[in-house]
């Protein structure tokens, strides 16, 4: 038993150092990748439920490293925050996404909203508003065609947060609360905030058809959102049944694999050519 214990201990140690090693590599390579613009963006359609028309796309970052392979944004966004690289990353995402939207528009494709994720730490930074201003100006993007998605964790009613929200609204950009329903502060703070969209988290959508409570929660969130003047985007829609239920609940917009996975800019251009994808 003693030997086995030792063995397990050694094994555990090795496992830990492998993990530390992997983490160290991710940090090192990510810094290089951001500095050398080696990330890419894919775009996922947001579809108007009544008409089936694409009304927006969400830009999502991808990172493929020759040695590490494909790294999930769940991992590298957190890493970028930890190593102080989230600002240059976000700046690159904003520029690339806005340039892309302007380029689609100039080639005569239907105009769609461009949604960009802003991580909570960056959202609270005083640099954000000047950055957005700069990117809009340099890209020629119309402010009302850019949507910023922030998670509920920033929706606290501190004076600082409120002034960031106000400043962004003054610029004319659209604001969405991402992953709505999964945070702690949502309901109380919504009354102070002037956001355009609530994005209902996939977590609730997943269970909606086989769990009555999830169904009721989604219905209530949609109704409450509407009463407060927000439009609703449901995310993670994978089946026609989910879509049907959301339509009955008067949800405006849906996003999910049912319509399309996140795809390249060229693939989006093809979808926009067709205008309707349902
Ligand atoms: P999110 O903002 O909630 O984005 C939605 C995620 O759900 C995306 O994962 C998308 O690919 C996935 N998804 C969409 N529809 C479906 C569906 O029908 N089924 C399933 N199973 N999944 C679906 P992804 O691209 O892996 O991104 C994960 C998270 O990483 C994002 O969650 C977001 O929080 C973060 N992220 C990605 N790109 C960026 C970025 O450029 N900046 C920041 N700050 N965060 C980003
Ligand atoms: Ca998002
Ligand atoms: Ca989300
Ligand atoms: Ca999510």
From TrEMBL:
Transmembrane domains' residue ranges: none
Q: Which residues form the EAL domain?
A: 23-276
**Name by which UniProt lists this protein:** EAL domain-containing protein
Span of the entire protein shown here: 484 to 761 of 766
């Amino acid at each position: 038993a003693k030997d086995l214990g030792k063995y397990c201990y050694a094994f555990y140690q090795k496992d830990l150092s492998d993990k530390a090693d992997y983490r160290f590599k991710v940090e090192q390579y990510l810094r290089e990748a951001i500095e050398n613009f080696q990330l890419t963006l894919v775009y996922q359609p947001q579809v108007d439920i009544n008409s089936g028309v694409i009304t927006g796309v969400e830009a999502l970052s991808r990172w493929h490293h020759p040695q590490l392979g494909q790294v999930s944004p769940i991992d590298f966004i957190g890493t970028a925050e930890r190593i102080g690289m989230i600002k240059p990353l976000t700046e690159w995402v904003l520029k690339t996404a806005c340039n892309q939207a302007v380029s689609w528009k100039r080639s005569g494709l239907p105009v769609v909203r461009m949604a960009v994720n802003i991580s909570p730490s960056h959202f609270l930074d005083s640099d954000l508003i000047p950055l957005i201003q700069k990117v809009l100006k340099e890209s020629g993007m119309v402010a009302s065609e850019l949507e910023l998605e922030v998670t509920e964790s920033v929706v606290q009613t501190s004076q600082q947060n409120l002034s960031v929200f106000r400043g962004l609204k003054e610029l004319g950009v659209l604001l969405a609360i991402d992953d709505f329903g999964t945070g702690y502060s949502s309901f109380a703070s919504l009354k102070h905030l002037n956001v355009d969209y609530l994005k209902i988290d996939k977590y609730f959508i997943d269970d909606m058809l086989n769990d009555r409570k999830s169904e009721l929660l989604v219905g209530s969130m949609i109704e409450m959102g509407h009463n407060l003047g927000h439009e609703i985007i449901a995310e993670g829609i994978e089946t026609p049944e989910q879509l049907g239920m959301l339509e009955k609940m008067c949800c405006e917009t849906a996003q999910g694999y049912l319509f399309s996975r996140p795809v390249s800019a060229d693939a989006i251009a093809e979808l926009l050519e067709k205008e309707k994808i349902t």
